[in-house]
Design goal:
single chain, 654 residues, alpha+beta, Rossmann fold, Herpes Virus-1, 4 domains, seven-stranded mixed sheet, 15 helices, flat, phosphatidylinositol-3,4,5-trisphosphate binding, phosphatidylinositol-3-phosphate binding
């Protein structure tokens, strides 16, 4: 008996029906799922699902209300003569999850059926935000309720929706209307709201008063008494019906809907593609997870639904801009002053003269002035110290301008200010004294120029000398253009290695193993071999070759000993050089030991590749991704210096 009960319980679900279990009946389709994801690909797909022409002018009607109040049933009987266009079900679980759409060809209406409020569903915050996005693209909004008396929840929902619509959605819809070239802005007036109440035992609102329109006045008075505004809506009307014995009389609701659809004085019909573009724009702008611990519970539509979720790392104040504002290159902004944190170093210096003149010009301590060349600037730095240079006023301070009595800059020429710190943005860097790195860059430039000038002849002589002392079975360097193992083409300055067993040319990665090759005359000492020969383990029938070749290998052995000695000396010099580079590295540069791949192309670094630093962002990049130069005054580099491709393509000043 218990097994039968458990089996029956498994077949019963009290949760909402999953999208995979819902079936489109041909007239309605899922437009937006419960995760706020559009289920139509583009405008043509939207038109195909609706079954209307692209040139047809349409309006949008949506319905809201609590779960179980019969929203889908109302739409079916008011607009589709009782046909079950939108699914209804006697099941205790919600039969409408997300937003479903259908087209009414008689009234040229796009009808949107929404998920009921107060249902047992997860992600309530995202579902509420979805309801407001639907309301924003609607021309007519029906709020369906079966409450015997109008609850405060309805007034608070509509009042909060009106406030959020004006604050967050109006700018987006205004921008969309300008992009679409509409004569009448979509956001000039919000949708018309119809409150449809069905009672069975209670009198309707204004039923005891014979004055026409008194119900609408009483409804507005309730909004005013609860301190709720309806300024975003073009009209708010009340429609009531008392159903003592079914069926429900929807005639008065249909009459009001017809009036709203035919009224073009406030909102004119528009093409379906514009409706889709509006919904897509709002979906792209207001999306993403909503943290429950930062949501105000006193409002149906708190600002956290629609504002940027980023918070200042120093003072924990939330950004007040809209969601995804960084796509429009709009920086983070927060109200109030921030607090200084040593780990973020979020204090900047502002030129006091410009500040008093109504401008805010940030100055940074740096090694040289923009008017000095690199070597003269370093000489001045050694004598007079760092400088503060304003873009408008020029040089306003030198740290060692006088022999004695040099004042602190904050006491006279600059004004300190603490700024907010945001995740993912450039860290504050008030010290741009990069004299040591400038010296290294200058020396590297000289060394690189000499090396590049002599690289061609040196490589040619080295290859010729190597071929002269190579064993007969080695393939000459002049005939090797690619690795015999991985088939990768050798770069111009890349070193070619020979396998001591087969004599073919390989790259460093394909010839890392070593083993004795006595059959080739190399004796019992392990020597470099390729991966394939290492796996084979060597040949067994080469006694004749082993007895004749050792004399020929003497020259090659001498060459390898000399080359190994030079490599050891070069490595010994590299270690202190790397130490000096690490000390001279500016603070915002990523240390070399933390760089494993190029920040731009994500190509892993190998020992033969040089790691370069972008002077703007400080990330490690390869040579191919950092071939461009630009001045980076914000980091103290007033002359063109190496930058990565990402920073080089930025249109703003670095």
């Amino acid at each position: 008996m218990s097994e039968m009960l458990l089996k029956d319980m498994d077949e019963i679900s009290l949760g909402p029906v999953k999208m995979e279990e819902e079936k489109e009946n041909g007239r309605s389709f899922l437009l937006v799922d419960e995760n706020e994801s559009l289920q139509v690909k583009n405008e043509s797909h939207f038109l195909q699902k609706l079954g209307c022409s692209a040139a047809q002018g349409v309006k949008v009607l949506s319905i809201f209300g609590n779960t179980g109040d019969g929203k889908s049933h109302t739409l079916n009987h008011v607009l589709f003569d009782g046909e079950e266009v939108f699914a209804t079900s006697p099941s205790p679980s919600s039969c409408t999850v997300g937003v479903w759409a259908a087209y009414d060809p008689l009234l040229n209406l796009i009808v949107l059926d929404t998920e009921g409020m107060l249902g047992a569903a997860h992600q309530q915050n995202r579902r509420m935000r979805l309801l407001l996005k639907v309301l924003a693209v609607s021309d007519v909004v029906v709020y369906r309720t079966r409450a015997e008396r109008l609850h405060n929840d309805m007034f608070q929902f509509l009042g909060s929706a009106s406030a959020a619509y004006l604050k967050h959605f109006t700018p987006e819809l205004r921008a969309l209307s300008s992009r679409c070239g509409l004569d009448v802005p979509l956001s000039s007036l919000g949708p018309g709201v119809i409150v449809f109440q069905e009672t069975s035992r209670t009198q309707l609102l204004g039923q005891d008063v014979s004055v026409l329109g008194q119900a609408d006045t009483l409804l507005q008075k309730r909004f005013h008494d609860l301190s709720q505004s309806t300024d975003a809506f073009s009209s708010v009307q009340y429609v009531g019906t008392q159903t003592i014995t079914p069926p429900t009389d929807y005639s008065q609701l249909l009459q009001i809907v017809n009036q709203q659809v035919k009224n073009t004085s406030q909102r004119a019909p528009r093409q379906p593609a514009i409706v889709f573009s509006a919904l897509q724009a709002l979906s792209d702008r207001f999306c993403g997870e909503i943290s429950d611990d930062k949501i105000s519970i006193c409002s149906f539509f708190p600002d956290e639904y629609f504002t940027c979720p980023s918070v200042c790392l120093s003072c924990n104040v939330r950004c007040k801009n809209g969601m995804n504002h960084q796509k429009d290159a709009v920086p983070h902004v927060a109200d109030g002053l921030c607090q200084y944190a040593h780990q973020y170093n979020n204090k900047v210096l502002i030129c006091k003269r410009c500040y008093e003149g109504g401008k805010e010009v940030i100055v940074v301590p740096k090694t040289t002035a923009s008017s000095d060349n690199q070597w003269l600037g370093l000489a001045k730095y050694a004598w007079s110290g760092y400088v503060l240079e304003c873009a408008s006023c020029g040089i306003i301070y030198r740290s060692r301008q006088y022999w004695m009595g040099n004042q602190d800059p904050e006491s006279g020429v600059v004004r300190p200010e603490v700024k907010h710190v945001w995740q993912g943005t450039d860290a504050f860097q008030t010290d741009h004294q990069n004299a040591a790195q400038r010296v290294l860059d200058g020396m590297n430039y000289i060394i690189q120029s000499v090396s590049e000038y002599s690289a061609g002849p040196t490589k040619a002589v080295t290859a010729w000398l190597t071929d002269q002392v190579a064993p007969p079975y080695w393939k000459p360097n002049t005939e090797i253009s690619e690795c015999h193992g991985c088939k990768r083409v050798f770069e111009e300055a890349e070193r070619k290695h020979h396998c001591r067993a087969c004599g073919e040319g390989f790259c460093q990665a394909c010839s890392t193993h070593s083993m004795p090759v006595p059959e080739r005359g190399w004796g019992g000492t392990p020597v470099r071999v390729c991966d394939a020969c290492y796996r084979q383990g060597g040949s067994q029938n080469t006694g004749q070759v082993a007895s004749t070749e050792p004399r020929i290998l003497v020259a090659r052995r001498v060459t390898e000993v000399a080359q190994s000695t030079l490599d050891m000396v070069s490595t010994a010099v590299d270690y202190p050089l790397c130490f000096v580079k690490g000390v001279a590295r500016p603070d915002y540069w990523i240390p070399d030991h933390e760089i494993s791949q190029c920040h731009c192309c994500e190509k892993p670094f190998i020992p033969s590749m040089s790691k370069h630093h972008c002077r703007a962002c400080g990330q490690g990049v390869c040579g191919n991704c950092s071939s461009k130069t630009r001045p980076v005054p914000s980091r103290g580099w007033d002359h063109p210096v190496r930058v990565c491709d990402g920073c080089a393509d930025r249109r703003d000043s670095l």
